[in-house]
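Polysaccharide biosynthesis/export family protein
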Amino acid sequence: MKTITSLIILLVVLGCVPQKDIIYLQDEAMVDTLVKYTNENEKIKIKAFDQLYLQVTSLDDGRINFMSNDANRYGGGRSENDLAMVSYVVDDKGNIQLPIIGQFYVLGLNTDEAANKIQKELEMYLNEPTVKVSFVNKNITVLGYVENPGRYFYATEHINIFQALGMAGDVNVYGNRKYAVVVREENNTVTKQRIDLTDVDLLGKNTFYLKPNDVVYVEPMNKRKWGIDTFPWALILSGITTFILVANYINND
């Protein structure tokens, strides 16, 4: 009987995931203490095949402002799909095709730099123009042991790793929070970098913030590799219970 009891306890222990394996940003030394981490966001640079939305206003009549994107002009919507319809695609040489102006080079600039450059060019045609440039259809892909893997679009300027995981419903109980991988493509080079989601120092690292088109993959824990979360616990425990009952019945006789 002692052997059977020990076996039951062992099975229960094996099926449990330690609390320390599912806690984010662990810091044993931090107890009721405010700790600040410096983490400067880098402005995203414009790359070939990016989609850019240009919002141009001026003191001119709307009919004169050839760069106007009045919402009524396109049915009033301003969803990501709507913006994509009126966006400018950067070609493989780094140019966008603007009305009247023609090809305009923006490769390697951030959105503020591109806006300033376009605004100076438009001053030749419009009365005190103001330009705002933003990316369209920024997205990240979250795969692996999360609740809802998939591709997610976002409209904010930046997105961090936890916001991305939140979109995907968080890492599930058998996801390895110590081994998330970020795959990134930049300048014709693909990189793969490991991120430890349990390390509080992640808040101060440049890997805390994702970039458009990043792919986040959460590895399975060893318990999942062994198939423990799909192991037929109920069947095994039911069999052991039945065996105990039968054994007791025989012993009593």
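thats it. The radius of gyration is 28 Å. The chain has two domains: 19-42+138-225, 51-135. bye
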